[in-house]
């Protein structure tokens, strides 16, 4: 699912510019290399599967420096190594720009834009390749954060099923994972990922009592963070909501639940199966 982010970003960048070829890929943290997994506009398979190592070639240089690099004439640029000349020559590439995919301060891959003629790149072309790299970085960061929380939630669910009386610390893990997964779910556009995250959220809560009140998704989001002890202002910051909006959701949830205060609203919501 995460690799589709590369394909989408490359296609979008090519549609936005007149660049002939775009390609790229990314890898796990601290690997020091990545594999080119996607190409758009390539005429040969020479680039696909190419392993780019830190410091080697134009992309490897951008990876090492964590900053963009440009070659007006790749095959005659004395500042880069010659490790990937055969692939570049097979694809007849000449001018190449490389933007690192930076995630949490680490360069994890590269998005390249290239032409089959020597020369400089126009500003819109450079911006488009940069935007593609940033789009991939955002999507990968979100997906990896989701995966981390899913693993945490599944661990917590396991603890809940194997112990007859889970410890408070274990329940706290469940509640933290539940709240963070709900936050991350709102940033995901991929339908398959959304379904997977929702399945995990369903595991973390008991079956909702049929005769209980129906809470909106945002009301549950707010209550999940109230359960972690966050203030209204902190909840607003986490959910990107105005303070008064948070208060409105909380008041609405309390009214539906028949609660008189924040603590009681969380207790009642748990009893009805809305929260773990």
UniProtKB/TrEMBL annotation:
PROSITE patterns: HTH_LUXR_1 (PS00622), HTH_LUXR_2 (PS50043). Pfam families: GerE. InterPro entries: GAF-like_dom_sf, Sig_transdc_resp-reg_C-effctor, Tscrpt_reg_LuxR_C, WH-like_DNA-bd_sf. CDD domains: LuxR_C_like. One of its GO terms (molecular function) is DNA binding. SUPFAM superfamilies: C-terminal effector domain of the bipartite response regulators, GAF domain-like. Coiled coil: none annotated. Signal peptide: none annotated. GO terms for biological process: regulation of DNA-templated transcription. It comes from the Bacteria. This is LuxR family GAF modulated transcriptional regulator. It comes from Leucobacter komagatae.
């Amino acid at each position: 699912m995460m690799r589709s982010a590369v394909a989408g970003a490359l296609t979008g960048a090519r549609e936005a510019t007149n660049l002939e070829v775009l390609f790229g890929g990314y890898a796990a943290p601290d690997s020091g290399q990545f594999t080119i997994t996607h190409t758009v506009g390539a005429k040969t398979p020479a680039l696909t599967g190419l392993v780019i190592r830190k410091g080697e070639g134009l992309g490897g240089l951008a990876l090492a420096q964590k900053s963009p690099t440009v070659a007006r004439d790749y095959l005659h640029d004395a500042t880069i190594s010659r490790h990937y000349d055969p692939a570049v020559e097979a694809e007849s590439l000449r001018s190449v720009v490389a933007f690192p995919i930076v995630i949490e301060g680490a360069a994890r891959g590269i998005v390249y834009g290239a032409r089959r003629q020597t020369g400089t790149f126009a500003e819109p072309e450079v911006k488009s390749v940069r935007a593609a790299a940033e789009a991939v970085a955002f999507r990968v960061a979100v997906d990896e954060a989701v995966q981390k929380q899913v693993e945490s939630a599944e661990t917590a669910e396991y603890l809940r099923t194997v112990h007859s009386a889970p410890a408070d610390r274990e329940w706290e893990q469940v509640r933290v994972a539940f709240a963070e997964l709900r936050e991350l779910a709102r940033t995901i556009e991929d339908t398959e990922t959304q379904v997977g995250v929702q399945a995990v959220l369903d595991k973390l809560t008991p079956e909702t009592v049929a005769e209980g009140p129906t809470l909106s998704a945002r009301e549950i989001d707010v209550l999940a963070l109230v359960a972690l002890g966050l203030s209204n202002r902190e909840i607003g910051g986490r959910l990107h909501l105005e303070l008064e909006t948070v208060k409105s959701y909380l008041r609405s949830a309390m009214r539906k639940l028949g609660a008189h205060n924040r603590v009681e609203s969380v207790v009642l919501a748990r009893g009805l199966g809305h929260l773990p």
